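so my prof wants the structure for this chain in the tokens format not the other one, which i didnt know existed until like an hour ago. anyway here's the sequence
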Amino acid sequence: MHLSNRQLFLKHVAQTSPAPIGLEITRAEGIHLYDADGRAYIDFISGNSVSNIGHCHPAVVKAVQEQAATYMFLMVYGEYIQSPQVQLAKALSDHLPEALDTVYYVNSGAEAVEGALKLAKRATGRTEIICFRDAYHGSTHGALSVMGNEEFKQAFRPLLPGITILEYNSVEAVKAAISDKTAAVIVEPIASEKGYEPAGMEFMMAIRYACHKHGTLMILDEIQSGFGRSGSLFAFEHYHVVPDILCLAKGMGGGMPIGCFIGSQALLNTLTHDPVLGHINTFGGHPVSCAASLACLNTLVNENIVDTVVAKEKLIRGLLQHPKIKGIQGRGLMLSVGFESMEINMKVIEACIRRGLIVDWFLFNAWSMRVTPPLTITMEEIEKSCKIILEAINEVYST
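here's what i got, hopefully its the right format
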């Protein structure tokens, strides 16, 4: 008996929920995904903030093809000089403050967080980590430990000890909690799964000041907000603070798997001794992924794509006016559209997908819809997408 791809998917591919979206995509280009029947869908979430310059961008495809034909995997991370790694690290440092000049490559956002947590413990000799309510930093054990939501953690305890969870955007909590015992504070400048709640200026400044005062490392998780999504190349630029460690992934690779954590050379060098190989991985800095990432970064910068984000945000906010929308939160092209309940939100999302527009919800804010289109989306495509959302809302409330 011949099984379809859908049947094989459900039989052999490990699932993460009882009801996956289940679209069978056979091709992707620009802002569109195409299913097995050839139907086009607008990807209005960029694969959850990954495809910042759209799907199969020609510059990324060319870089991947050329690098794959030159060499792919050579040796475990950090042993050989590989041009794609070197050139990407140089380009990243060129666009970052002087204190962020050394890159440690990994394969994903969760791995970047794991490395950053280890680095903070190694460099400070401390074990206490501060994180925030409804923060999301990944699903591996260390990253899960600093997730600020017990529902998603309770089945996997015991996790890392010494974790303190504070209220996001609480200046008072930060001032009271950070001490000489704190190794690091890990925070998202825009809380990704909380429905894209931006950090307040005073909040970020309070963290930076307290970390400096107590010799604590400030870790910024820009796994979703980095690479132009906030309207600046990196979201911390909005706050006039510089983190000690910056975590990147998702939009970094132009669709290829890559992440990193970045700090000063002196800080990163603490991983080279006592013990040697203080942090190591096999595929981090894969040359094909690094080539793709460099092409993605160059495209964002050279084509001035980031400069268009604020105007596109303004257009979306202006178009999504409806009595049933409770509010729009976020910054740049990472926005959440709030409804009165999770049930209504899910129905609107389903109606959008039926109409060919892919939107999503948030882990810790299920009553809000995720809107994170590719940064390359045009104004006309935004108008079409917002029209679909409004039609979906009307459908849900008319039935």
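also thought this was worth mentioning. The longest strand covers residues 365-371.
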